[in-house]
Amino acid sequence: MLANYTPKYNATVVSKLLKSGAVLVGKTNLDEFAMGSGTAESYYGPSINPWKSGLPFGVKDTEMKVASQRVEHKLVNDWHLSGGSSGGSAIAVATGSAFAALGSDTGGSTRHPAAHVGVCGFKPTYGLLSRNGLIPLTHSMDTPGVMAKYVADVRLVFDHLRGQCNYDSTSIDAKQVTSVEKLEMNSLRIGVPAEYNLIGMSDEIKKLWSNACDQFQSAGAKVVKVSLPHTKFSLSAYAVLKACDIASNFSCYDGIEYGYRAADVTHSSDLLYSKSRTEAFNETVKGFIMAGNYFLLKDNIDHYYKYATKIRRLICNDFSNVFKQVDVLLTPVTISDAPKLSQWSCKENKEHLAREDFCTQPANMAGLPSISVPCKLSDNGLPLGLQIIGPQLNDRFVLSVAEELENIMKFPTIEYYG
Length: 418
Known about the structure:
The protein is of the alpha+beta class. It has helices spanning 12-19, 87-94, 111-117, 151-161, 203-218, 234-249, 269-280, 283-295, 302-322, 341-345, 347-353, 361-366, 395-409, and strands spanning 57-60, 66-71, 100-105, 120-123, 143-148, 189-193, 222-226, 328-332, 370-377, 383-389, 414-416. The strands form two sheets. The protein has an eight-stranded mixed sheet with strand order 3-5-4-9-10-8-6-7, sandwiched between helices.
């Protein structure tokens, strides 16, 4: 749809990076309009997980020395996914092509691929990073995200990007961000929500989650079991709200104002709209648009859209209540390591894997800061990560806890040796 479109201005986050002296080396691949969790059906082709890419990547140990065993696998048609929607950004960081990368995060699109390729993916508090220049998916959940190999690098980029923007009415003054002194482990209270122990989650993820809790307790932190009772409704509410916003936001892609225009249609504006959108959107995008328009029909809006907004408020209240008991939450990011294309393409498993947003999208629904931190390799030699979620505007505290998790788990990075 936007193959021949050239933006007339930079996004605010891009302008801030350039003003700070950063060098932007290019744009990265993603699912079309950020609708997806695999970067497998992008307009430009798939983004293949570098840990199983067939390229000569070597694993570094905790002392940053090259390990004797290299991650080399013959690439076949059935490759491992990188996650999505910002899979290209995650790969750019994981392979050392970039120091850091931007992504968009509406329901986990920064944290999900970060977990699958072994980097840090941070979604700040809603409004701390300006949405100006970000092509909208779901206005009330969209958040620019930051990816880097280490939490300290994420913090560096975040500090240059946060702050109010005159072109985004939802942006927040950076001065409101809670400052953090030295993290005191003895006073840290970590919540473990029971509802995130999802049916179908791999035993490796569950074991990693439990091990991280034990490690935090050994370091002096208090780990508390908590409940977020409306989490079980969050994925359904998220799907409705997302589809409704997409139907509204994407009405501008009509073949008239900008973007793709179907050829040889001169006698009917309705036909021009229909043909342009049919030819230029992929099946995923068209499916969301159709679903959103259905939910917004006069006879349906109360039953779907308005009901979903009420569920969202209950989810926000759950988080507010739980953060009176604990400082942060520790949860999984995904339900397994990166799946193969054959697993993803299978209808039953595709529906199953769609639930990978289960652990990430509640933070978007409530506008909370959250970060995915790589923790260990699975038995298949693929990264596994965990997520830290904190209260609104406690972004620096979340990063501090994430840095502690990073130090505890000592995840091995990869480097290209071709």
